Amino acid sequence: MKTAVSIQDEVFAEAERLARRMKRSRSEVYTRALAEYLARHAPDRVTEALNRGLDEIGEQTDNFVRTAARRVLAARSGERRPGRHMVG
Fold first, then answer.
1. Alpha helices for 1-88 (secondary structure H)
2. Fewest CB atoms within 10 A around its CB: which of 59, 68, 75, 87?
3. What's the confidence (pLDDT) of residue 77?
4. Which residue from 8, 6, 32 is spatially nearest to 19, judged by alpha carbons?
5. Residues 6+ positions from 88 with CB-CB distance below 8 Å
6. Which phi and psi (to 5°) does residue 35 adopt?
7. pLDDT (tens digit per residue) in 59-79
8. Among residues 42, 39, 41, 34, which one has the least CA distance to residue 11?
């Protein structure tokens, strides 16, 4: 989609220099800049994205925590699992 917008000359020139330096198109520079601006001004979107990510890894984390807790309890009770050596 194409959209026409008015940009101050100084901002336009700086964006042009940045695009050349980054070897990116002007459109990509503007798109990324606007996306960052929107993310900064929509904290709920950031929170939602973080929550989705945490939900995705939550099950793995739960399994890790359970396994770690079992190992700590076993070490404290003096149990030894086959193939495992306690150092301490």
1. 9-22, 26-40, 43-76
2. 87
3. 78
4. 32
5. none
6. -60, -45
7. 666 677 778 888 888 888 775
8. 34
